[in-house]
Amino acid sequence: EVQLLESGGGLVQPGGSLRLSCAASGFTFSSYAMSWVRQAPGKGLEWVSTISGSGGSTNYPDSVKGRFTISRDNSKNTLYLQMNNLRAEDTAVYYCAKAVLLSGVGYFDYWGQGTLVTVSS
Amino acid sequence: DFVMTQTPLSSPVTLGQPASISCRSSQSLVHSDGNTYLSWLQQRPGQPPRLLIYKISNRFSGVPDRFSGSGAGTDFTLEISRVEAEDVGVYYCMQATQFPYTFGQGTKLEIK
Q1: Would the CB atoms of B92 and A47 count as touching at under 8 Å?
Q2: What distance in Å separates residue A56's CA from the closest CA in chain B?
């Protein structure tokens, strides 16, 4: 059974940093791309980042490029999201998602329960 | 960026009746490999999203066959043949044909 468990969310001041983790199990972690998707309170879904199975390729939307860094440790079956220079508009539930991607195209087949990040003074 | 537009944004449906949600992309979602990476997600209240349909019309594992997807190019539809109480929630279309991946605004399905 595929399981994705996010952690690391919490309250942080504007301009601060936070690192999210996603522990994966139930599949061969290194064989799959992984992504982060966020959802602001009462809003829709927004793609945040994707990393290839090897970790050698990453992608971000303009809204987080240069501030967020996605990474993975395949020896620990864990995905990370380092978030720097946080803004109020980054407040959201952050989900990690397993991706079925080939050369960057595909779909997300499993999602974690999410971790809440609140950026506020 | 590919803009995904869903209609309606809210859909009150009677139990046992069909429901239909439309999703339109600002550009064709056909990839150079010939596939179209349009998927549908369901988000029940208080729950994370769940994959229902991928590549336009393929039902994901465990998804009831009352859910079906169709369409091509820029226009896509999710249909529920007979709505059940457990289908209440928000439905999103998503394109992963090109970065940045984008989602529709969501359609809230509720029971009349």
Answers
A1: no
A2: 17
Which residue in the set B35, B96, B103 is minimally distant from A45, CB to CB?
B103
Percent with pLDDT over 70 in chain A: 100
Tokens of A95: 């989900």
| DSSP conformation class of B99 | S
Give the model confidence (pLDDT) of A95-118 as tens digits: 999 999 877 789 999 999 999 999
Nearest to A55 by CA among A33, A27, A77, A82: A33
Task: State CA A111 to chain mean position distance.
Answer: 11
> What mean pLDDT comes out for the span B17-38?
96
C-alpha distances in Å from residue B6, one per residue of A28, B19, B21: 35, 14, 7
A2: left (phi over 0), alpha (psi -120 to 50) or beta: beta
Contacts of B97 in chain A (CB under 8 A): 105
For A11, the enclosing helix (H) or strand (E) is strand A10-12
Give me the pLDDT at residue A105, please: 81
